[in-house]
Amino acid sequence: MINKDEVYKIGRLGKAHGINGEVSMQVDDDIFDRTDAEYLILELDGIMVPFFMEEYRFKTDETALIKFEGIDTMERARELTGADVYFPTPSSSSQDGEVTYAMLVGFTVIDFNNNKKIGKIAYIDEQTINTMFELTDGTLIPASEELIEDVDIDGKTVTINIPEGLL
């Protein structure tokens, strides 16, 4: 059984595309640029279900068209509309160890200066020149690589050297 601790959200499925079971996906992460994937994990009725991909292609930078194995009709593809799409979280022992901002949603932010928990990351705002972590209480914290002291994938924490006076 796949646990939500073992995955991170990369997008959401949109409408069926064509009659052969292809479905569109809004992509929030550049995972396809960095690694090959044989399968994606869809959340269906609260259950994490792996779906193997036959093929995928990008329509735009944010939209992909995906053909899953066993989904061969428009009707079957429509059943997947609105499903959140996840990718396995790399363990701390993964070979490249590369971590993206999207992986950090749900992680707890710890202040490097006093080791206090600040809150959980609810959203990553990458729309401006300065990427920001938005916490569940609405607090915004700069997500600058220069300020991030440590990322603990297994412990789901991000330790940040928060500038004095920010909080």
- SS-based class: mainly beta
Strand percentage lies at 35-45%
Number of strands: 12
Approximate shape: elongated
Cα gyration radius (Å): 18 Å
Strand order of the largest sheet: 1-2-5-4-3-6
Question: Summed up, what is this model?
Answer:
The chain has 167 residues and is mainly beta. It is 5% helix and 45% strand.
Walk me through this protein's architecture.
The structure is a single chain. By secondary structure, the chain is mainly beta. 5% of the residues lie in helices and 45% in strands. The strands form 2 sheets. A 6-stranded antiparallel β-barrel has the order 1-2-5-4-3-6. It has a 6-stranded mixed β-sheet with strand order 10-9-8-7-12-11, with no helix packed on it. The longest helix has 5 residues, at 74-78. The protein is elongated, with a radius of gyration of 18 Å. The protein starts with 6 loop residues before the first strand and ends in a 7-residue tail after the last strand.
Task: Give the helix/strand layout.
Elements: E1 7-17, E2 22-27, H1 31-34, E3 39-44, E4 47-58, E5 63-68, H2 74-78, E6 84-88, E7 108-111, E8 117-125, E9 132-135, E10 140-142, E11 148-152, E12 157-160
Write a concise keyword list for the protein shown above.
single chain, 2 helices, mainly beta, 167 residues, 6-stranded mixed beta sheet
